[in-house]
Design goal:
The complex is a heterodimer of chains A (114) and B (125). Chain A contains no helices and 13 strands. In chain A, strands 2, 6, 7, 8, 11, 12 and 13 form a seven-stranded mixed β-sheet that branches. In chain A, strands 1-3-10-9 form a four-stranded antiparallel β-sheet, with no helix packed on it. Chain B has 125 residues and is mainly β. Chain B has no helices and eleven strands. Chain B is globular and about 45 Å long. The chains are: A mainly beta (114), B mainly beta (125). The interface between A and B is medium-sized, with 27 and 27 residues.
Chain lengths: 114, 125
C-alpha cells in the first residue's frame, strides 16, 4: 500500500500570510504512460464532506480560488495557500489514486488562524 | 447537478450487519469508467477508503476490511449499497459515498469530485 505522510500535523498562520502543507508518498505516484502525478488535495471544514481542491497534483478544480496551488512530482508534493483567508480554516488531506486498491489518504493537516 | 446521498441506520449493535445505501442523481451508474466509493471517517480522525465499484461492475475492497465488506450497485435505482458485517464500536464513523472516474483506460481509480453529506453511524449496545 502507498502511505502518504503529511507535514505538519497542524499549522497556524496569520491572515494574508502563506500556508504550506506537504505530502510525502512512500512510492512514486508519477505514471510513466502519461507523465501525470496521481495525487489530489481536499479541504474539509467541520461538519462537511471533503471538497476537491487540486487533482493531478497541480490542476485546480473549477471554482477553487487561485490562491490555492499544488506542486511537486514523484513522491513529494505541496499545497500552498498564497494569502490565507478566514474561510480557509479547515483540515486538508492529500490522496493518491495511482496504485489501488487501496486508495489512500494522508493523516490530515489542521490549519488555523494565528 | 450531480448529487449523492447516503442513507442507513444511525445506530447499530455490536455484531450486527450494517447496510448503507448511496442514491445518486445527475449521472448514471452506467457511465463509462465511472465509479462510486465508500469512505469513512471516525470522529476527529482521518479519511479511510473502504471500497469502490465501477460501471463495468469491477469491485475492490480495503485489504484490512475485505472479509467484512460487500459492495453492489443497482443501476436502474441509481443506488450503490455497502454492507459491513460484524460491526464493532471502532466502526463508529461518518460514512461517505463519493464519485470518481477513470480518466485513462489503464487507471485503477481516480480522485473524488463529488461527495455525499455523509451519515454518522454509531455502534453501541
Amino acid at each position: 500500500d502507498i502511505v502518504l505522510t503529511q507535514s505538519p500535523d497542524s499549522l497556524t498562520v496569520s491572515l494574508g500570510e502563506r500556508a504550506t502543507i506537504n505530502c510525502k508518498s512512500s512510492q512514486t505516484v508519477l505514471h510513466s504512460s502519461n507523465n501525470k502525478n496521481y495525487l489530489a488535495w481536499y479541504q474539509q471544514k467541520p461538519g462537511q464532506p471533503p471538497k476537491l481542491l487540486i487533482y493531478w497534483a497541480s490542476t485546480r478544480e473549477s471554482g477553487v480560488p487561485d490562491r490555492f496551488s499544488g506542486s511537486g512530482s514523484g513522491t513529494d508534493f505541496t499545497l500552498t495557500i498564497s494569502s490565507l483567508q478566514a474561510e480557509d480554516v479547515a483540515v486538508y488531506y492529500c490522496q493518491q489514486y495511482y496504485s489501488t486498491p487501496p486508495i489512500t489518504f494522508g493523516q490530515g493537516t489542521r490549519l488555523e488562524i494565528k | 447537478q450531480v448529487t449523492l446521498k447516503e442513507s442507513g441506520p444511525v445506530l447499530v449493535k455490536p455484531t450486527e450487519t450494517l447496510t448503507l445505501t448511496c442514491t445518486v442523481s445527475g449521472f448514471s451508474l452506467s457511465y463509462p469508467r465511472m465509479g462510486v466509493s465508500w469512505i469513512r471517517q471516525p470522529p476527529g480522525k482521518a479519511l479511510e477508503w473502504l471500497a469502490h465499484i465501477f460501471s463495468n461492475d469491477e469491485k475492490s475492497y480495503s485489504t484490512s476490511l475485505k472479509s467484512r465488506l460487500t459492495i453492489t450497485k443497482d443501476t436502474s435505482k441509481s443506488q450503490v449499497v455497502l454492507t459491513m458485517t460484524n460491526m464493532d464500536p471502532v466502526d463508529t464513523a461518518t460514512y461517505y459515498c463519493a464519485r470518481t472516474q477513470r480518466e485513462y483506460y489503464y487507471d485503477s481509480s481516480g480522485y473524488y469530485y463529488a461527495w455525499g453529506q455523509g451519515t454518522l453511524v454509531t455502534v453501541s449496545s
